[in-house]
Amino acid sequence: MSAHVHPELTKNQALVFGSLSDADGPLTAYAILDLLRDNGLRAPLQVYRALEKLVEYGMVHRLESLNAFVACSHKDCGDHGTAAFAICEACGNVIEFSPQEAIGHLKDWTGKQGFQLSGMTIELRGKCKDCLTAG
């Protein structure tokens, strides 16, 4: 679990985070809603509000290209505001990693451009080594 766990998660936030932590891969908001209907979540807005706060707390990341969410697997993501993912297009596996050198170059560029960076998500798409060797 992230080092930035908010000490006062609401019931809905805790349920949403738990569903993402238990998942084998990224989940859409509607997939989360389907998983949590028996726990009292009935409306997409309930899930989206919980996801918004969990992203803000650094506990969850949104994968833009998949319009899905994953629980953070790095304890310091909230510190650097950057997340990087390798997404296998064959099996759907998502690996979170921290490419410090690339992040440094991007932050240098934004500084030189006078661009105020509020966050950064890097998504690499391709095939993982398991899918490459299997096929």
From TrEMBL:
Keyword DNA-binding part of the UniProt annotation: yes
Keywords per UniProt: DNA-binding, Iron, Metal-binding, Repressor, Transcription, Transcription regulation, Zinc
Binding site for Fe cation: 79
Cofactor section: Zn(2+); Mn(2+); Fe(2+)
GO cellular component assignments: cytosol
Domain of life from the UniProt record: Bacteria
GO biological process: negative regulation of DNA-templated transcription; regulation of secondary metabolite biosynthetic process
SUPFAM superfamilies: Winged helix' DNA-binding domain (SSF46785)
Residues engaged in binding Zn(2+): 88, 91, 128, 131
Entry's family note: Belongs to the Fur family.
Protein name per UniProt: Transcriptional repressor
Source species: Roseibium aggregatum
Phylogenetic classification of the source organism: Bacteria, Pseudomonadati, Pseudomonadota, Alphaproteobacteria, Hyphomicrobiales
